[in-house]
Each structure stands twice: as C-alpha cells, then as structure tokens.
Amino acid sequence: MRSGSTPDRPRWRAIALAALWLTAGGAACAQPATDPARDATAPDPSRRDGYRYYQIGDVSAPRPAPTQAGLMLVGGGEWPREAFAWMIQRAGNGRIVILRASGTVEAQNEFFHDIGGITAAQTLVFDDRRAASDSRVLEIVRRADGIFIAGGDQSNYVRYWKGTPLARALDAHVRAGKPIGGTSAGLAILGAYAYGAMDGGSLVSSTALADPAGPQLTLVEDFLHMPHLQRVITDSHFGKRDRLGRLIAFLARLSNEHKRQDLIGLGVDEHTALCIDARGQGRVFSGNGGKVWLVRAQQPAQVYAPGRPLSLRAVPVIGLDSGSALRMRDLKIERPAFSELYDVQAGQLIRRQPGA
Predict the structure, then answer these.
(1) How far apart are CA 145 and CA 22, in angstroms?
(2) CA-closest candidate to residue 268, choices 295, 249, 231
(3) Structural domains in the chain, sorted by start
C-alpha cells in the first residue's frame, strides 16, 4: 500500500447520515453518482472529461468571513477534528474544494455534515492528466476558499498534476492568502520534496536504508511550492508504519544530490495534524496522542552509494505533541515531546542511548 492508501476516516458521527441529508435540505446534497434511484444504464451525471464532479451545499453563497493563509498537514487515518475546524476558520467558513484521484464524496460529506460551518464543498476526482488543464476545473480551484487534498495514491497526483495549470493554480491559491491541507497522499505532495511512490509500491524503511541511492526511492521536486516548506520533505502514517528509517533515507539522498545539510523531514502520525499559520507558527492537533517527528540529517553520510546500505551518524529526531510549538523560520521548538539521536550502521537504524 502507498503512503496515501488509507481512505478518509473521520471518527465522529453525531447523527445518522440519512437524517443529516434531511436537515441539509436534500437539494443541497448534490451527489449524482451515488443516487440509488438513478437508472444504472443512464449516463453518469458526475462524469466530465478526465474527472468526476460532486458538490454539496450552496456553491453560490458568499463567504461569511475573510480567508487567512494556513497549511494543515494530516498524517492519515482518522481526522483530528480540531485541526479541520482550524482550517475551516481560515477558509472564512466558505467553500472547500476537495481534490482526489480515487473515492467520491466521502470527504465533502464529512466537511459539510460532521465538522460543519462551511457554505459548500465541491469534489474533483481526477482520472486523467488532461483534467488538470480543464477550464472548469481551474475556475473551481480559483474560487475555492480552502483546498483539501485527500488520501489515495500520490503517484496519481504526480502523474496528473505536476507541471500543469492545476499545480500553478494551487500555488496561486496559497499566495492569495487561502488555506490548503492534505492527508496521507495529500500530505506527501505538499513539501518542496516528496516521495512520489512512482516505483509501484510503498517503500518500507528497511528497503530504503538498504539502498537509498537505488531506483525505488522515487523522489519528486519542483511540484508544489508551499510557504514554510521550501526545504521540507513530508511523510505520513509515520509511527504506525515505522517510517523513520525511510525518512532518514530520503534526507540522505536529497542531501547527497543537492549537496546541502539543511533539509528537514516532517513525519506525521495518524489522527494527527501539524497546522502552520501565515507567520510560520506550527501547532499539533492529535486525537490519540500522536506526534509530529522532525528529522534533520546534519552530517554527510559515511556510506552512500548505489547498491550499498546507508551508514550515517548522529541524526537528530525531535518529537512534537499537542503541548509543543514549532517556529518554521528557524525550527525553534518549544516544549518538545522527546529528543533523540539515531545512527544508521550498514542499513540498520539504531537509537542512541541517553548519554552515548
């Protein structure tokens, strides 16, 4: 499974979905592909050229409040509700646009019904690169008050969006002072560097450390250009899927290729989000005690070569929880949850004992 293969899974459901449909007014819930009364032989009304389209709420309603810039980096799995409320507030309680390459209306229903406080949500499900140049798609994205990139397979996002008008529209959205967020695969592509999963699988730590210069590390750059993430590579489902080793391998490769030691890895646990405001101040929201892991590969690798396992010493790893604060400008961390050092010896990740 790729880093974004887990579907959207909010934890809360206060009212049965059928009742919510009634209270929403029926007509506001435009979900054409899921209408059980539709003739199965009739054309799919959600189908467009290279994508499907869904909406819910009043897409013509004015935004109630001004927007504010913000980044919401979600590690996947169940949604931390407070983080999504943070993003909605920065979207001026207006219209959220969900971008994805699989699934249908899951996320827009959760935004509109379970979290609430928005005028409408629209979903674009891409299945072809040509949709990233579609004028209707670009207009929906341009008018969005907030954008959320869902989970799935980030290689589809790379194939469909990189180097397209849509990618430029996402950058423009952020420059306009509007929030953007992503979960799982949607998180993976927000950094200046990304694991593109172009190898056809989801790389595990042991494989990455065994040959960080090998072809299975399909790293992508010059895709999206988010503020405060200019030297960052992100990773999701972090603790649950034991991804510290692979994030260190990613940093070793990037440091070697770019001849720099100031790159940063941010790993986010499931049910956890790092939210970064316009000033670059970050805070963690977590529904299950999850962490954000900040990794810095400050030393050149002792062994880095194609076909050879990595050797690297003294990699700092700092954990952040809901009591921590992060300043992205200089990476100053207040009240860290933990601070550790790791060595990599012939591809084996070893945590140093305190005082060693």
Answers:
(1) 26
(2) 295
(3) 17-278 (3.40.50.880)
Tokens at 355, concatenated: 């005082």
Q: What are phi and psi of 123, to 5 degrees?
A: -125, 130
Whether pTM exceeds 0.70: yes
Look up residue 197 and give its two tokens.
Answer: 């999963």
Any idea what the Cα angle at residue 284 is, between residues 226 and 157, rounded to 5°? 40
Could you tell me which of 37, 56, 53 has the C-alpha nearest to residue 45? 53
| Distances in whole angstroms, Cα of residue 102 to Cα of each of 5, 185, 228, 254, 350 | 10, 11, 28, 30, 37
Q: What gap in Å lies between CA 200 and CA 282, rounded to an integer?
A: 33
Dihedral sign of CA atoms 183, 189, 190, 194 in order: positive
pLDDT in tens, 44-72: 778 888 999 999 999 999 999 999 999 99
Provide, rounded to the nearest whole percent, the portion of the chain with pLDDT above 90: 82
- Classify strands 348-351 and 338-345 as parallel, antiparallel or unpaired: antiparallel
Grade residue 356 by pLDDT with cuts at 50, 70 and 90: low
What integer best gives the mean pLDDT of the chain?
89
CA dihedral 31→33→34→37, nearest 10 degrees, is 100
Gap between the Cα atoms of 310 and 67, Å rounded:
45
Please tell me the distance from the alpha carbon of residue 318 to that of residue 334, in angstroms, as a whole number: 11
Cα–Cα distance between 97 and 63 in angstroms, integer? 13
Structural contact between residues 295 and 265, judged by C-beta atoms closer than 8 angstroms: yes
Residue with tokens 């430029």: 168
Mind listing the pLDDT tens digit for each residue in 278-320? 999 999 999 889 999 999 987 889 999 999 999 999 999 999 9
| pLDDT tens track for 133-191 | 999 999 999 999 999 999 999 999 999 999 999 999 999 999 999 999 999 999 999 99
Identity of residue 137: V
Locus of tokens 């200046």? 192
Listed residue (228, 227, 234, 152) closest to 187, CA to CA:
234
The type of residue at 125 is V
Is residue 338 helix, strand or coil?
Answer: strand
Query: Cα-flanking dihedrals φ and ψ of residue 153, to 5°?
Result: -125, 110
